[in-house]
Write a structure and sequence with these properties.
Rossmann fold; 10 helices; five-stranded parallel β-sheet; 310 residues; Phosphoglycerate dehydrogenase; NAD(P)-bd_dom_sf; NAD binding; alpha/beta; seven-stranded parallel β-sheet
């Protein structure tokens, strides 16, 4: 059985796969010509959506494609086929994303950046910090990653609400409401955490109307998709004091171009799409599990519904 590995770290993925399934015939590259040559022979594809989408554009198609990303936007471009099994990375990002969120909540409450600035200025800053206990968080996107983040934050005494495509009962969330309740619940939250995938329904939802509903003391974190935020409206909200701060991990255009307003916006921290990197060890474990399911004709973990887009 042949597996095409389209990854910058294809050598590492190949070594890990050989430890689990030594009988696989592996070919890896991050070069388009080499990937096209090998894919023409038919194979299972494992790798980055941005490297594999061009193969689909060429008319090539996998037996099954396992994405190494949670997001699969490049594979959903207009005109690309949808008649093959596609699975996205699930079950491997929960803790690392939760650590990212917790890091920035603590930094916000402990006023970490302000204290660094005070030290540079040799100014003694003894303002008292706040605790996470008793704060409220609105997690927008309560799937695999969002639920993991909620479970991670719950022991800190944070009141948790969620937004999903449809209302549901989902502990430890006190409430999970539909997307139509976003602005109402945002007005009650100290932390606003976007973890939504990119779908037509989730684009531009963080706009001027939304930010006008937020507490001036709220922290907005976007670790979902850049297209969910209207950039100019977020910058205006920060200038106008509608938010206490923002942490932006994902942007509409990456890398963020020089001169973009985010670079100089007040109280905005850019983290360069680093919130939840793929751990090859965990991804290979997911692939091996899905491979056994695929060979046995069983349901795959993380299988994408092309109509929903995730």
């Amino acid at each position: 059985m042949r597996v095409l590995i389209a990854e910058a770290e294809h050598g590492l993925y190949a070594d890990l796969l050989r430890q689990h399934v030594p009988e696989l015939e592996l070919f890896g590259s991050d070069q388009s010509a080499e990937l096209s040559e090998y894919a023409a022979g038919g194979a299972i594809w494992l790798g980055q959506p941005d490297l594999l989408a061009p193969l689909l554009q060429q008319g090539l198609q996998p037996q099954w494609l396992q994405s190494t990303w949670a997001g699969i936007t490049p594979l959903l471009a207009a005109g690309l086929p949808t008649n093959y099994p596609l699975t996205r990375a699930v079950g491997i990002f929960g803790q690392v994303m939760a650590e990212y969120v917790l890091c920035h909540l603590l930094a916000h409450e402990r006023q970490l950046l302000a204290r660094v600035a005070a030290q540079v200025e040799q100014c003694w800053d003894n303002r008292q910090p706040h605790s996470l206990n008793g704060r409220s968080a609105l997690i927008v996107g309560t799937g695999d990653i969002g639920l993991s983040v909620a479970q991670f934050l719950a022991p800190f005494g944070i009141e948790l609400c969620g937004i999903a495509s449809h209302p549901r009962h989902l502990p430890p969330f006190r409430q999970v409401a539909g997307l139509d309740e976003l602005s109402r619940l945002a007005g009650e939250a100290d932390y606003l955490i976007n973890l939504l995938p990119d779908t037509p329904a989730t684009r531009d939802i963080y706009n001027g109307t939304f930010f006008a509903c937020c507490k001036p003391s709220a922290l907005f974190i976007n670790a979902g998709r850049g297209v969910a935020v209207v950039d100019a409206d977020l910058v205006a909200a920060l200038h106008q004091g509608q938010l206490a701060g923002s942490v932006i991990d994902v942007c509409r255009e990456e890398p963020l171009p020089a001169g973009h307003p985010f670079w100089n916006a007040p109280r905005l921290l850019l983290t360069g799409h680093s919130s939840a990197p793929t751990d090859p060890r965990l991804l290979v474990q997911l692939f091996v599990d899905n491979l056994a399911r695929w060979q046995g004709g069983n349901a795959l973990r993380g299988q994408v519904d092309f109509v929903r887009g995730y």
